[in-house]
Design goal:
Elements lengths: L8 E2 L8 E2 L10 H31 L6 H9 L2 H5 L3 E3 L13 H4 L1 E3 L12 H14 L1 H15 L3 E6 L6 E5 L33 H16 L2 H17 L13 E2 L12 E2 L2 H21 L2 H22 L18 E2 L4 H8 L10 H16 L12 E2 L15 E2 H13 L3 H18 L9 E2 L5 E2 L9 H14 L1
Antiparallel strand pairs: 1-2, 3-4, 5-6, 7-8, 9-10, 11-12, 12-13
Helix pairs in contact: 5-6, 5-7, 5-15, 6-7, 6-8, 7-8, 7-9, 8-9, 9-10, 9-11, 11-13, 13-14, 13-15
Length: 481
């Protein structure tokens, strides 16, 4: 039996544009005709599909060194690629796009931040989830990155009311990566930045994450022409970040409001999270400039990377971890589970890190996080809690500091795998998996955040796709050994 549901042409809430599903390239006509064609195609090709699935999955399933729970997690978390409010369209101007634009061939791809968080391709979150697209469907990842590249220069003059401050701000300012590509109740791809809690043009992580993601994508695809196409935008974005260096330290400073993906957890001054992302972005730009023959830019970013790394270590290194931020506030000494996020992307991209993040610092930081945020929080049965105080108590500054984020836990576990800490990685991620899938029955609805008092937030969420960072780290680790 073949079951087909087709709706070849769709509109969003504002109904200003009609979009054509990507499959309409091969299955044209009205919905009845398309359904008949697709059903016939499925019934004549399903054996090939089954064989292709076996060929893809069997090397993982047959690997006796991988825990069974991880095999389940890795394949099952991919539910969100299709079940995340996903749309895959032909680009409305595909005939006018230049030949090197990946959307000409592969269209527009978008998925929601979460079943409850109604925003397409939320970029600060996709940064984590992108390991799935980037490794399995690299051309779709290129389409998504091309969409954001174009949106960097978009300007939307209309004002919008901000929920946090009650002020009004411009919806989309130039030279900023948007938070998201829009709300399906409006007109996505046109009305960017559906998020309206804070002014996202002042977020410190978005521009940096674009640069880091692009270089990681290149190391997968080895598509130098696409890298060259995007590099000028990376230059514009990193220079825009100079405006976030308000003290002239050579590294971005957070503004004392939640101006990054932890949008309830305030960072002020130089932070472990955004500072680490800035250093990683500069390191990626050095690599890009070298590959593309930009000698002056390579020297420029090498010098900036050295300066930023020195300031980062001088202000934040405690001897056992990088403190949350440099503000000397009540929570600035918090141990953040995600403080090595930028470092992880450098490892995934094959960038040398010793002169940026000393190996001894990484080793001590992972010791500290595992002891406090993993084992010190419900005995490692829930993954890694976002924030712990140095005295072993939970950082209760904000709801997000006391949550376990699925994507953060998987990225942390990936970092452990890169550092040869397999047992710690399986303990860290395994506790989270067993809670989600076995204890609370939220498989195929993996939430964004869990707390120690048996509550969860935002079921069905994009960031858990970061489990593919673990798969990537495991695969590369096995090759190196």
């Amino acid at each position: 039996m073949s079951l087909v549901w087709t709706m070849g042409e769709v509109q969003f809430g504002n109904r200003t544009q009609t979009h054509r599903r990507y499959y309409s390239k091969w299955f044209p006509g009205d919905n009845i005709e398309s359904a008949e064609l697709m059903s016939e195609y499925a019934l004549t090709h399903y054996k090939e599909w089954n064989q292709a699935i076996d060929t893809w999955q069997n090397p993982t399933l047959d690997d006796e060194n991988l825990p069974d729970w991880f095999k389940s997690c890795m394949f099952n978390e991919l539910y969100y690629i299709s079940d995340g409010g996903t749309v895959w369209f032909r680009h409305e101007n595909e005939d006018k796009l230049d030949e090197e634009d990946p959307r000409k061939q592969f269209g527009r791809f978008a998925y929601l931040e979460g079943h409850e968080y109604r925003m397409f391709n939320t970029f600060d979150v996709h940064f984590y989830a992108s390991f799935s697209l980037g490794t399995l469907w690299p051309r779709l990842e290129q389409c998504l990155m091309q969409e954001f590249r174009d949106s960097v220069y978009a300007v939307i003059e209309s004002k919008r009311w901000l929920m946090h401050s009650g002020e009004w701000c411009q919806r989309k300012k130039p030279l900023s990566v948007p938070h998201d590509l829009g709300d399906p109740e409006e007109e996505p791809f046109t009305l960017l930045n559906a998020y309206n809690i804070y002014d996202v043009s002042d977020w410190k992580d978005l521009n940096l994450k674009f640069i880091i993601s692009l270089y990681r994508d290149y190391t997968v695809s080895q598509d130098l022409r696409f890298l060259a196409r995007m590099f000028p935008t990376c230059l514009d974005l990193i220079r825009k970040c100079d405006s976030f260096d308000r003290q002239g330290l050579g590294i971005v400073q957070n503004g004392g409001f939640p101006d990054q993906t932890f949008d309830c957890w305030t960072m002020t001054g130089v932070s472990a999270y955004c500072g680490g992302l800035h250093i990683a972005a500069l390191a990626c730009l050095v690599e890009m400039a070298s590959l593309l023959g930009y000698k002056d830019e390579k020297q420029e970013f090498e010098a900036k990377r050295v300066k930023a790394a020195q300031v980062y270590h001088d202000l934040l290194w405690t001897g056992s971890y990088y403190r949350f931020d440099s503000s000397h506030s009540s929570h600035s000494d918090s141990i953040m589970a995600d403080q090595l996020c930028g470092y992880l992307f450098l490892k995934a991209s094959g960038v040398s890190t010793e002169t940026i993040f000393p190996a001894s610092h990484i080793d001590k930081t992972l010791d500290t996080i595992f002891a406090n945020n993993v084992k010190g929080f419900h005995s490692a049965s829930l993954g890694a809690v976002n924030g712990m105080n140095p005295d072993g108590t939970l950082d209760r500054f904000a709801i997000q500091s006391e949550e376990v984020w699925t994507g953060v836990t998987y990225l942390l576990a990936a970092t452990m795998l890169y550092e040869g800490r397999q047992e710690e990685a399986w303990v860290t991620a395994g506790g989270l998996y067993r809670t989600v899938y076995e204890r609370i029955g939220l498989g195929f609805e993996t939430p964004e955040g869990l707390t120690g008092d048996r509550t969860y937030r935002s079921g069905g969420y994009m960031r858990a796709l970061a489990v593919y960072a673990m798969q990537d780290a495991y695969r590369k680790g096995n090759k190196s050994h």
